[in-house]
Amino acid sequence: MTAPLSSAPPIPFDNTFARELEGFFVEALPAPARSPRLVAFNRALADELGLDAGALDSEAGARLFAGAEVPAGATPLAQAYAGHQFGGFSPQLGDGRALLLGEVIDTHGRRRDLQLKGSGRTRFSRGGDGLAALGPVLREYLIGEAMHALGIPTTRALAAATTGEPVQRDKTLPGAVLTRVAASHIRVGTFQFFAARGELDKGGKLADHGIARQPPQLVAREDAYPAPPEARRGRPAAPLADYVIARHYPELVAGDDAYLALLEAVRDRQAALIARWMHVGFIHGVMNTDNMTVSGETIDYGPCAFMDRYDPATVFGSIDVHGRYAYGNQPLIAAWNLARLAETMLPLIDSDESRAVERATEAVQGFVPRYEQHWLAGMRAKLGLSTERPEDPDLIQAFLSALQSANVDFPLAFRHLADAAAGRPEPLRALFADASAIDAWRRRWEERLAHEPLAPAQRADALRRVNPAFIPRNHRVEAALEAAVERSDYGPFEELLAIVTRPFDEQPEHASFAQPAPLDAPPYETFCGT
């Protein structure tokens, strides 16, 4: 296969995935792009990656980022993976519209993937066109960068380029390509793909030994979780596990029980990640196992959104009709996904099957206490608590219950705690139709704050550093995308991007962007964007 080489400055690729994991991918080339145009470019990220930002922010860069030309040293490939999608197992998914160009070592010494998303068909496209429309590309750019600014581990956007080629969905839309940066694109589904192709045996499934194949019910109906087919537990790809350890968890290389330690390390990173999602009201929308990285980064911003008014049952994805991936279910789904990872690793964890199941079960069951530890620590900080007292969980839950019963905006309520801590409770009280409910809670909170060492002004500053004033409000996101897609007006997108990448700053000139959609606005619904 050949493709035009990019005239942009060379990128110093070091492509270990292509060199070391033969059989874990198929080679492919991006589709032609008729008239590439660079519509968003992340110069700060380019600098961080050690790239020539000035030279890439150009026509030559547009051709590279649209896939019209391939940079020298790249090895374009589509990664193979499987996945449980809404509980049902698909043995072959893979990158059907994405190509890994290669890896670079950034200025901090970290290995990072550069991937084109929306670059055309691959062997894994399964009948799709492999393309992406401009709206979903800009959504992922915007949400990913907002998440990064919030301090949440995430894939990031280096560039968005239109191709000049139409994409047919329910209507004709402008085509675009996202250049995505990640610690890696290895997923739970990557392990599942190769385990499913090993020798099958009988028994020993984790489902039979205490790891539920359906997550405990939290807010969804009991029948909302169809049981997946029997796990295919063949011999997992040990080279993949070794590669992941070397790339993401090098501290485990010389230790005993490295594969069990890998499972535990992935568990711990995911516990911390999901807690951070919950702290800001982020709803991923499609937590399939192929959308869960082993690096602990948020990936694949499809039907994602941020919750306005607090309700654990909140769902925005149009296809999640049973609420499997509702806001309140996200921690339990993460644990369920980890159990699927553990199934693929059993022969690596211990040669004795029953012992492997026992050890893997114990590791996966450790997710919940670790998640709860991260969640509680973060919620204490969001309430201005720097010390620990036994009454804190009840105080936190009482605040959340007050928000839910009064249909109060989640981010605004936490942000206004800073005002209340400084002696100005009026903004917080104004969020409630009947302020007496929050007044009762506030008295409990102030009694608890009396045990804290910080002065009121210091506490208010600390609260503003953890409770964002600005998130990507769903109606604002849609307005910005509509302007770009329908009118080729990128001003609203650029304005919103600038605001949400400074989430903790006051920005009084943009105060309206901190407000939720009007109460009479229609229910918000997102779509996968494929």
Helix content: 25-40%
Q: What's the alpha carbon Rg, rounded to whole Å?
A: 23 Å
Q: Average pLDDT, to the nearest integer?
A: 90
Major sheet characteristics:
6 strands, antiparallel
Question: What are the low-pLDDT stretches, counting only 5+ consecutive residues below 50?
Answer: 199-236
Q: Structural class, from helix and strand content?
A: alpha+beta
- How would you sum up the global shape? globular
How much of the sequence lies in strands comes to: 5-15%
Distance between the termini: 26 Å
Structure characterization notes:
The chain is α+β, with helices and mostly antiparallel strands. It is built from 19 helices and 12 strands. The strands form 4 sheets. Strands 2, 6, 7, 8, 9 and 10 form a 6-stranded antiparallel sheet that branches. A hairpin with a 3-residue loop joins β9 (156-168) and β10. 50% of the residues are buried. The model is unreliable at 199-236 (pLDDT under 50).
